[in-house]
Amino acid sequence: PPVEVAPGAVHLPGWLDGDAQADLVRRCRDWARGPAGMRRHPMPRGGVMSVQMVGLGWHWQPYSYSRTLPDGTPVRPFPSVLADLAARAVGAAYGAPPGPGADPYDVALVNFYDADARMGMHQDRDELSREPVVSLSLGDTCVFRFGNTETRTRPYTDVELRSGDLFVFGGPSRMAYHGVPRTRPGTAPPSLGLAGRLNITVRASGLEG
Ligand code: MD3
Ligand code: FE
Questions:
Q1: pTM here?
Q2: Which residues line ligand 1 (CB under 6 A)?
Q3: Most Cβ neighbours (<10 Å): which of 98, 105, 192, 209?
Q4: Which residues are within 8 A (CB) of 15 and not within 5 positions of it... i.e. 6 or more apart?
């Protein structure tokens, strides 16, 4: 059953069945390959992110979107399977799919967490659109920290995200601070054959071209 963690933030545990999870893991392995594949992004003030990422439709790197990687490699196309999944996810979370006037879902970020990867508290503000962000978790369980819109500190709520969980962040939750303080290595469903955690976020960039 959907759990509204905060206004507009809806958690649907176990939304993807085992077959759907396995299908997405297989697709992620494909998207991760090649010159436009998964990498650790450099941070503008030094260091690299511990999470590995690949963008589909748009390349995201702290803190902007572009159609190419820094070396000019074109980004992978945004797959229609994720557009369909995002529309179904919004419908499942809010009781109605995106309306005809909604900005189209046109970008997905696929994040991979090895046992040591973490994501610090941040807001997602590089999209011009305020359409809800759709998040799908695969593999290892993580501790997801859902905060407030004012500060990157307390108050926040820690939620365990497990393989197959859907989380949709819209309305006032769209600009909330959030992060992943840790994963729980070795907790992935054995049938997935995945050592680590994958998270797919599907977004509307609101960008042109
Ligand atoms: C709340 N990813 O890619 S997913 C990210 O698990 C990101 O990899 C985390 O934060 C992960 O930016 C968290 C849940 C999530 C994603 C986007 C959000 C929560 C969000 C955007 C706005 C508010
Ligand atoms: Fe985020």
A1: 0.98
A2: 109, 111, 119, 124, 133, 135, 144, 167, 169, 173-174, 176, 178, 180, 199, 201
A3: 105
A4: 89, 92, 136, 164, 165, 166
